[in-house]
Amino acid sequence: MTLTSEDFLLAAKRAEISALKQLLVSSGLVTWVTDLIHELQRERGLSNIYLVSHGQRFARQRLDELEATKQAECVFREALSLLELDSDSPSSARLFRSLSFVLHCLDELPALRLQINAQKLTADENTRLFNRTISGLLSVVFEAAGSVSDPDITHALVAMFNFVQGKEYSGQERALGVIGFAMGEFTKKQQIHIKTLQDAQQRCFDIFSSQAKAMPVDQWRQAESSEAAIEFNKLRNMIARFSHNDTLPTAISEVWYELSTHRIDDMRAIEKELEADLFHLCQQKIAKAEEDLRLHDNHVRELTDIDEPPTSVLSSFPDSINDPVKLTMMPGFNTNVASSISELVQRQAEHLEAMRDELRQARQALDERKLIEKAKGLLMQNQNINEEEAYRQIRQSAMDNKKRIIDIVRNIISVSDMLQLNDGDSTSLE
Question: Are 169 and 197 in contact (CB under 8 A)?
């Protein structure tokens, strides 16, 4: 059987529907991932207070949170059974690697909790180990954002990823602040670390605001101007102004935890809105694609009733979507039929062209984020520093050289690639 242009039009639409349905499953996975992240963030903060106070503070709240975290983990593990493990796409490979790492980290949590119970862990070590697990979960959201080809959904996922990442930096700030207030003092290193986390939050929330719809952005602005947020910022200023001669009442640690938790809970409510919007957006896209398929299919069926079927019109396809289609007809050819198929082809071409332009814009923030993460990883590996210090160096270099952060990042990656190439040349000469 000879395949025609309309066959491929229908096949393309079916493939689009299949991809959207799989994305619907992925969006559900994102919801369960963020649920688990939220509970792990709370457990991390409570565990720090428990450790620094030698088990005297928040023992009951920590036990309650352990149950909430375990429940979120069970739901997350059950959700993984909905994924198609036989997918061979590159994006699926990256997603599956992230999930493998996450499951490994989750398997280690029971041993970590036993160490906390026995007070055999410092708060800093506890924070680092929880950060590792949460970072893995964030990569799952990140890979979901990177595998989408629909611009509207890409905008939604980029907004969500940056908001979730900003919330994690907020959780790290809460965990680090708890340690300092519970100890009654902040080291200079802790102060710099907290300031770096605050700057990282702002960067994430700026990207979120540029990609999200107006309503969640307004919700976030209202949350940041609330009375609780104002009180929280007063404690932030207290940390920034602290000097080694000062002393802080250790009871402030609970106030800090409550205020920062109130702020993070506000973020969680916005997260829930973003998740619901993403889910509904996927459903709308599927419904629209299925309706388009039905109309296309009906149109093609009508054309099969014509005695003399049309030849392919792809040879007369316009050089540009702005140019009109010019058809060269054979004698006796049905021009109405040819025009009908041509309209279907041209509409599909216009749709794809518009999607490409939108997707190019929507993915810019995501692509830049990938480069930033790569540059941070290179600095962390080569200089043996943590993520926050790596980003602080990048940001400081951008300020000193009066360049954009993305320009500094590209330069770091370029220099690293050049050094690797030179090392390879040296090895081959030997």
Answer: yes
